[in-house]
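Many introductory courses stop at the sequence. We go one step further.
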Amino acid sequence: MKFGSSFCILNVGGRRFSFSAELMKRLPLSRLSRLHLCVSESELLELCDDYDRDRNEFFFDRHSEAFSFIMLYVQHGKLRFVPHMCELSFYNEMLYWGLESSDLQPCCQRRLDDRMSDCFVHFFPEEEARRPEEPQSHWLERMRRTFEEPTSSLAAQILASVSVLFVIISMVMLCASTLPDWKAAETLDQHRIIEAVCIGWFTAECIVRFLVSRDKCEFVRRPLNIIDLLAITPYYISVTVTILTGENSQLQRAGVTLRILRIMRIFWVIKLARHFLGLQTLGLTLRRCYREMVMLLVFICVAMAIFSALAQLLEHGLDLEAGNEDYASIPAACWWVIISMTTVGYGDMYPVTVAGRVLGGLCVVSGIVLLALPITFIYHSFVQCYHELKVRSTRCSHSLSADFIN
């Protein structure tokens, strides 16, 4: 639906900006690019504060100078803070228009990170206004919150506690099944019954969550749901193979694949991430710090290549007859390098020459330095992610409590 002429006027805090309709669609600001998707003025007013059809003018009660700097970013591709304006206020304007902190220049990103750390403040993008729920979909939303958000209600907390209990029981049974005393016939039967009950609970929980989810495709693509599927599927494959080949068949006794499938039940422990903030923080930190993790891996690989080649030369290559056989090859020396750089030092192999020991000392010192550099960024990201998820969880709990009271 088109509103007015082909030119649009944006009135931001009393300052007017004129754009063509085609340019509005291509702007990297999500709030403005969604204006042409509106099919009614009521939807339009969800994105702006007011609209004048006669002049085709959109009103936004926002900071005009901040929007001017954002438009400079649209034109030139560089976004910096407004002078003499609070970094947090400008970041709030960025979130309103649909920008992220990654759009800032590196120097401004550091200023924003320092400011947020000092003030202990976290911002969240504004959620789109929800349409009034139909009575039929209201109970589906209640069910979805009960299964997806453990803090949404008392029933959700009970359900989460039961799920965690089943995970703990399944992990204990998986570990106990490897003990020699648990391989008796009676014990195996009891183990199978408990395992079947746990799998039944996990399967029912996964099916219900899939049925009440808003987007089925998005549900399938979520990492935690993929892990649930990987943890449940091996059990049904094992049961199917047992039914088809027999319990004591040669395939069952020598089936390495089946043993691998059974041990994949260890993925059940990752289900705890759905209920514990610490594991969620770990996952979010790894997702946000993948560049630092890759950088850490590159540091280790480069150092490993250099020190392993030198160690093989000093310990074995210079004297092939009386050399240290533990360093007979560079791949064998790589094991010594990695346990030295991480300061583990199993003692299974060590240099015996003076030059090799000097190289070992350099390897340990360089390992401490190389590991400390990117870990600092990962640590700060972990703290920030933890506080962000904690604030978001508290905010969600308060919102749901208000909905319940209303």
